[in-house]
Every structure is written in C-alpha cells, then in structure tokens.
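Give me the fold.
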Amino acid sequence: MRPREGEAQYWEEARRRVGSTPTSRVAWLLSLLYERPRFNSLLERERILLCHEMAAFFNEPRALSEDEARIQQQQIRRGLQLLVRGKLWWRRVRRDYWMALNPQEGVYIEERNYRRKYTFGRILFEAIEAMVGYVYGCPTCGRLFPRTPRQRRYCSRKCAAQMRLRRHRDKKRQRATA
C-alpha cells in the first residue's frame, strides 16, 4: 500500500496534538469528548488526521482505518460521557488461550493478551488513570477540564461568571428575607 501524499505531515501533526506526556494525552482525550464533532461530520483532511491521532494515541505503527477510528471515537466518547455522569465505564477484555497436546511434553497452554482490543483498552486505562488529580469537574456545568497550575475552579470564564452571579443573587435573597 502506497502512503498518501503528505503522510509524514499527518504523522507529525498527530503526534504533536496527542503529545507524549500523560497530561497532554488526557487533554487530547478531553478534546475528543468536547471539541471534536462526530466522525461522519468531519472533513476528509480532519478524518485522515484523526485516524493518525488515534494511531499515535494507541502507539500503532500505521494509521487506523476510518472504520476503526470512527468506532474508537464512539467508544471513547461514550465511555467518557459515562464517567462524567458518575457511572462506570466497562470494557470487556478478551483473553485467548493456545493449547497443544504433545505426547512427550503433555499439554502446552499459552495465554495471549496481545489482541488489539486489549492493547487499546490498556492504553486507554493508563490515560484515564492519569486523569486522577489532573482533571476536575466544573461545579457549574459539570464539564471535565484539566486544571492548570493556577488551580482554576471552573472550566471557563463564562461558568465562573455564572457562579459569581448565582452567589450574588443568593446573598441578595438572604438579605431581603432577613
């Protein structure tokens, strides 16, 4: 299979967007949840780039096919939405066992977990595990956001202003009833 024109540029941009540190990978996951539209509504260049980003995230040597990337995006979005709502995200891991019967050596059993689905799940779990202590929920809208060194409490200025206004109105009501 011949590489597409500009394949190296896609890989370079995909690796830059996903990053290599746990925090940059978590930020990429959150952007996948909040900032990216569904796969089918992306332009062709964005689809190709997302296939490369998924491959960079999962440490794959080649870009994912469009079907694989679409399925992974759906599963990741669905799972992160469950986590945002405070529910469990469950992924089934399938284990394979290879068995052989040899008259001299007896039964040979080998467990293999090197299925792609298992690898994707493990990498995803490691990235989500990195979220602990780094990603917080906005008290106003419930959206997850990475906390910056300044320790902001809200995901955006709009949410912070909305909360300030809410507190101001609550104080005003308390003074009026007292």
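The CA atoms of residues 55 and 65 lie 9 Å apart.
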